[in-house]
Amino acid sequence: MKPAAFSYHRAHDVADAIGLLGELAAVGAEPKLIAGGQSLIPMMNFRLARPTVLVDLGPLRRDPAMTAIRRDGSQLRIGALSTHRAVETAGGTLGPEFDVISRAMRWVGHLPIRSRGTVAGSVVHGDATAEWCLLALLLDAVIVAEGPNGQREIPAAEMFHGFYATAVEPDEVVVEVRFTRPAPRAALTEFARRHGDFAIVDAAVSLDAADADRLAGGRVVLGGVSPAPVRIPEAEAVLAGGVPGPDLFTECGEAAAAAIDPPDDAAGTGAYRRRLTRTLVARALHEAWEKGVTR
Residues spanned by CATH 3.30.465.10 within the chain? Predict the structure, then answer.
């Protein structure tokens, strides 16, 4: 397949990109930003997306802030054009509080995709199974977007609106994703037909330990069970005050499966997704707890 016809512009900096978006929209064009292109280009090739204009953010990589990965106190700040691979290999910078992010990158496609795809591109694309979208909810990410009226901060809880729909406006450029909730006991796991395929269901979890024998609580985030990634409060309630171990983790997985109403589609039935949810949540919780115990 080939994409529908489009015109092409290169932005020189963030202000130029915002200006181009405004100018093009004013004359009736339908511009779309492109960075790594690992999601947009395949959709264009299948005619699932038909932007009339592409605005390339590639030259913005010259700005160190757009590719920076750094700790800022208890927060982790990642420039919008950082690649998945750059994050995957930045474990020392992330520290134990955020290394779930680097460990999760092994689930993102294959090495060529990770080497070109960008953090912000994945978050703004808003795929319900995208690892970055689950991590954003798990770790209380703040998406920093810049537009004609300046910068604004979008909490991850307000970011994802449905199928490939996010809170970023058409005239805005995401410049940074900031993770504000350290999680030394956390894990992300998923199931796909083949490694590198889109996940049918994925689960991201974190555990907060009250002491060596009891949990203060935790988080459970699922992808592939609804139009957007979601936290599952019914499963999180099971963890609060619980004794960590296989019995609790199985109970939490069962609570998560009971709380969702996943769709039937070509990848699997709703019942199949519930079974996957039960297994993946328990597996992720075990991995998260063992990481904290053995660290």
Answer: 62-179
Q: Identify the CATH assignment for 7-60 out of 1.10.3720.10, 3.30.43.10, 3.20.20.80, 3.40.1380.10.
A: 3.30.43.10
Q: Under a CB-based contact definition with an 8 Å cutoff, are residues 88 and 102 in contact?
A: yes
The three-state (H, E, C) secondary structure of 103-167, written as one string: HHHHHCCCHHHHHHCEHHHHHHHCCCCCHHHHHHHHCCEEEEEEECCEEEEEEHHHCEEECCEEC
Q: Where in the chain is the domain with CATH 3.30.43.10?
A: 7-60
- pLDDT beyond 80 at 294: no
Single pTM value for the model = 0.96
pLDDT one-digit tens code per residue, 200-229 = 999 999 999 988 789 999 999 999 999 999
Measured over all CA atoms, what is the biggest interatomic distance in the chain, rounded to whole angstroms? 63
Strand 160-162 versus strand 165-166 pairing type: antiparallel
Name the fold adopted by 186-294. Answer: Enolase-like; domain 1 (3.30.390)
